[in-house]
UniProtKB/TrEMBL annotation:
<keyword id="KW-0812">Transmembrane</keyword>
<feature type="compositionally biased region" description="Pro residues">
    <location>
        <begin position="1"/>
        <end position="10"/>
    </location>
</feature>
<feature type="region of interest" description="Disordered">
    <location>
        <begin position="1"/>
        <end position="21"/>
    </location>
</feature>
<protein>
    <submittedName>
        <fullName>Uncharacterized protein</fullName>
    </submittedName>
</protein>
<keyword id="KW-1133">Transmembrane helix</keyword>
<keyword id="KW-0472">Membrane</keyword>
<feature type="transmembrane region" description="Helical">
    <location>
        <begin position="70"/>
        <end position="89"/>
    </location>
</feature>
Length: 359
């Protein structure tokens, strides 16, 4: 008796039977899942609700052959990318403007001579009449920087020391260097400023304005080289430097100095009359850790009192010392203020200069 699996007539000659014919075809799970049609189940066929014995499957193409874990991971990646694109488009964009607290505000008070004319001093010893009790020293020796560079609550001793060194360089360049004082140099001062302030500095230099924000004399002490020359490269200095924290991320350094310059008219011979010009300059610097690492500063406040100068003299670009022999007080006696007079900014001030340079 033949094999029940074989036809009664036996296997056809020259062939291996139907099983052998399709034995190389393997319907694995991925092939079945990729099929576009699917036979209905027995319960679905008995229900009679289907008009066709098969239903068409949703085609996912190559995705249908991926394992479930891979599909889940792919879906998560797509969702994360979509979220990143969405928030990148909809988040508010910061304008390339100055950060809060990075814009300089400057105030200048003109000091007129009390009475009489602007006095001359001995060219060979122009500072002889200065009081020894005032503690004046030559140049940077009078800056009064802290000798002990102590750490603060959030800044190390090394960071404080580096910040003070940068402030010292700024002070030296901006009020002691002859190239800045009477030769028109500005780039060396600019190089020490935080990049966020350099645009404001450039506007102050190219288009100075008496608006508290674009006065060149707020950034540095300087005189018109067409009118004023230094009678001595020595500048007498007395003052102090203090360190504190504005907040945990900002080191605040405040400087307060009195400076005395010996000046003469530009272009005149060595024997030209010499007079003294006095400036009190109080500055506030803010430095974050980036500024400290880059050896740069942010000059936030600048308050300058300078004289002898006439009241109302335009000093946005240069300080304007009165020449020897000018009689004070000039430009009106300071003191009376009329609130109804809005011809000048409310912050502009004028006062009487006292002391050895004020007559």
């Amino acid at each position: 008796m033949g094999d029940p699996g074989e036809p009664p007539e036996g296997a056809p000659e020259g062939g291996s039977g139907s099983d052998d014919e399709y034995r190389s075809v393997v319907f694995d799970e991925s092939f079945v899942r990729a099929a576009r049609i699917q036979e209905l189940s027995a319960s679905e066929r008995l229900g009679g609700g289907a008009a066709h014995p098969v239903r068409r499957r949703m085609g996912l193409g190559l995705l249908s052959s991926l394992p479930r874990q891979a599909l889940t991971l792919l879906l998560l990646i797509v969702m994360a990318f979509g979220a990143a694109v969405y928030f990148g488009v909809t988040s508010p964009q910061r304008e390339p403007s100055l950060a809060a607290g990075s814009e300089l505000t400057a105030e200048l008070t003109a000091l007129v001579p009390a009475a009489g004319s602007v006095a001359t001093v001995e060219p060979a010893a122009p500072f002889a009449k200065l009081s020894a009790a005032a503690g004046y020293a030559d140049g940077s020796a009078g800056l009064g920087l802290p000798t002990a560079r102590a750490a603060t609550a959030h800044f190390s001793q090394a960071q404080v020391s580096e910040a003070l060194n940068t402030v010292q360089r700024y002070l030296t360049l901006s009020m002691l260097a002859p190239v800045v004082l009477v030769q028109g140099e500005t780039e060396s001062v600019r190089a020490l400023l935080d990049p966020a302030e350099q645009a404001q500095f450039d506007q102050s230099v190219t288009a100075p304005g008496d608006d508290q924000h674009h006065t060149v004399t707020g950034w540095m002490i300087r005189f018109d080289p067409q009118k004023i020359a230094l009678a001595s490269n020595t500048v007498k200095v007395a003052g102090s430097v203090k360190v504190s924290e504005a907040d945990p991320s900002t080191l605040e350094i405040t400087t307060d100095h009195t400076l005395v310059y010996a000046l003469r008219p530009a272009g005149n011979a060595t024997g030209a009359p010499v007079s003294l010009y006095e400036v009190r300059r109080e500055l506030r610097f803010d430095l974050d850790r980036t500024d400290i690492a880059a050896d740069q500063v942010r000059l936030v406040d600048s308050v300058v009192q300078a004289g002898p100068t006439a009241c109302g003299a335009g000093q946005a670009e240069y300080l304007q010392p009165l020449p020897v022999g000018a009689v004070g007080p000039l430009g009106g006696q300071p003191g009376a203020v009329d609130p109804a007079d809005r011809s000048h900014p409310a912050w502009q001030q004028c006062a009487v200069l006292a002391g050895p340079t004020g007559g």
